[in-house]
Amino acid sequence: MERTVIKSARLGQEMVKIKHPSGLTMLLCPMPGYSTAYATFTANVGSVDTGFKTQDDDAFVDVPEGIAHFLEHKMFENEDGDAFAKYAKTGASANAYTSFDKTAYLFACTDRFEESLEILLDFVRRPYFTKESVQKEQGIIGQEIRMYDDDGEWRVQFNLLQALYHNHPVRIDIAGTVESIAEIDDQLLYRCYRTFYNLNNMVLCVAGNFDIDAVLRVADRVIKPDEKPVEIERRYVDEPENICKPLVEQKFAVAAPLFQFGFKGCGGNPRENLKNQILDEILAEIIAGDASPLYRRMYDAGIINSTFGSEIMAGRDYMCAIFSGESREPERVADEIKAEVARMRREGIDKKMFELCRRATYGRYIGMYTRTASVAGLMSAVYFAGMDDMYALLDIVANATLDQMNERLQIAFNPEKSALSIVRPLDE
Hints:
The chain has helices at 67-75, 83-90, 113-124, 131-149, 152-164, 178-181, 186-196, 212-222, 270-288, 293-300, 330-347, 351-368, 372-384, 392-398, 402-412, and strands spanning 2-8, 13-19, 25-30, 37-43, 51-54, 61-62, 77-78, 81-82, 93-98, 103-109, 202-208, 232-234, 247-252, 258-264, 309-314, 319-326, 418-425. By secondary structure, the chain is an alpha+beta fold.
């Protein structure tokens, strides 16, 4: 069994990478002194995976929007009962989520770790779909979709993504539409499961209070090798560099106008995108973080409040920087950010502000390595980015330079590739 130990001198922490005989990769980070164990079993598939081909296919297979999220819902149900009911007996807190390019199943526990881990590995590796259960789930997910349709914050985000992107499926709601999920049946679910839930497309990450030998014992009992590895080719989407439209507005039942203002970046490979995501997080702090002159000016002028913040959204082949919050003057906020970015691109970034924000970002990342859920998430992120060492993310922050920042500013924050999404109250 192949085992690699990766240590961080900075943190006094280590993670262990194990290649299980089944073919499953495990990333394990015991954290002495902690009472909680946190485990994720993650497949490299999400809402953007609407077209794929394996080595056994002559042509690409197109699947309905929302199928990855639908599959996540159905995985908890097996012939011998519901996984949540089993977790209730061990006392573990279990959940799952689907993102643009990942589907994760997880639990946290303070006791009976082996039992909880066995439940996780068992139900994710034992799909059970029937025509009747799929039809029932269509109704449940249809209600969820309608709830999202009534969520102003959800709508303002996807309106922005539809403004930034012409063709990339990141512009599609993760849950799909009521019409698209109606096309899903049990055979299609099995087909997607066999394609994306093969062990070479998954990773098990565990952090916190657990014993590595316990993980191996459970894996030996539960995980059986796939009949054969699946080679996945994902459909390439031709996405123009320019944005789709500069402004999207919608009336909604919200108390105050919501906005998201985004810059469309350049999608690279997963490893580059993860590194650039971290650099862009520093940049977003420099531009409009709560220590920046721009933030103070906008706050003092009353055009932003404590809801204002930023996010760097990055995946396999997409990236964008987003500023969001509530504002009675969202157009003015967008103009202020654009003007500040244009000034920085002309004059360069202030050295003191760069160092302040780099140190703040470094501190934030240090904090992430102290939380079991964050550590599991970091291990999963680096694995799917084609990296082994989650501590390399700290090095990216620590070694960031002013020249790097100015270079990224030109690439990732182009005012000509920006768009504004506004959701206004119905009475405006």
